[in-house]
Amino acid sequence: MLDNIKKVSRTLQSEYSYSVLIPTWNNLDFLKICIESIRKNSEMDFQIIVIINEGKDGTREWVLNEKGIDYIDSPENIGICYALNIARSLVKSKYIVYVNDDMYMLPGWDSAFFREVRSIGTNRFMLSGTMIEPVETGNACVVVKDFGRNLTDFKEEQLLSEYSGISRKDWSGSTWPPNIVHTDMWDMVGGMSVEFSPGMYSDPDLSMKLYKAGVRYFKGVGNSKVYHFGSKTTKRLKKSRGRKLFIMKWGISARFFTEKFLNIGKEFTGELIEPEISFFDKISNSLKRIKASL
Predict the structure, then answer these.
(1) Could you tell me which CATH class the domain 6-293 is placed in?
(2) pLDDT of residue 234 exceeding 80
(3) Beta-carbon neighbour count of residue 105 at 10 Å?
(4) What are the domain boundaries of the chain?
(5) Does the global pTM surpass 0.85?
(6) Per-residue exposure over 85-99, b if at least 16 CB sit within 10 Å of its own CB, e if not
(7) Of all helices (H) and strands (E), which one includes residue 64?
(8) pLDDT value of position 238
(9) Are strands 46-53 and 6-8 parallel, antiparallel or unpaired?
(10) Which residue in 84, 117, 132, 184 has the fewest CB atoms around it within 10 Å?
């Protein structure tokens, strides 16, 4: 599966403010608008690294003809775990930003991240941007407002005129993209865990690894906004073993971790405090682990 993978560096600078890693799997039209939004709406200098999985829809040819993009080229779909880990060797900055290819980055998204980074004063953090999505999914971290569910009905001009009036307080529980971590922390925990390939539940797993390494600053930045069309790639995947893998690996469910440890979706109040786990919760998670092992 990992044969014939190419790593190509074409960017000219030796260092950037941050590196954007974008795995893509035959999703060219969304990738184009994702990269266009980064180029148009970012305020700092950046490196873009695209991970091409298969590229049967013309992605490979498009990326090769685009200047200023470094890339990983895999003839097979290696998923996001292997993809992001391989892309690490091309990173020319101190900060890794992971972005899905079906996201549209809104003006000032990056400077909002770095205002927060500078205020923290340490590398021990994980930050996420705040997604605006067209459909209600029950995600407490998301702002729901429909600017289009596909590119054919995408209301870009309306989005750009209204996004600044869409507010969301900073929230607790950073785990999914768009997110940013320092390369020191990424390297310390070993990046993504490939046992979760192609990638489902690898996001909370990364957060858990950072938590185990002592990170307690998991923040969703309300002013770092991105429009998310909504799982255009994950809908094509087969049912994942990720949920079972997580509880077998860590002894608690991903949901329990994000809710009880990360306080996901709640108003951000500062560094996390180690939660007290009740006897009932310990038994419940033990039973879930036993069930997952069967």
Answers:
(1) alpha beta
(2) no
(3) 25
(4) 6-293
(5) yes
(6) bbbbebbebebbbbb
(7) helix 59-65
(8) 61
(9) unpaired
(10) 184
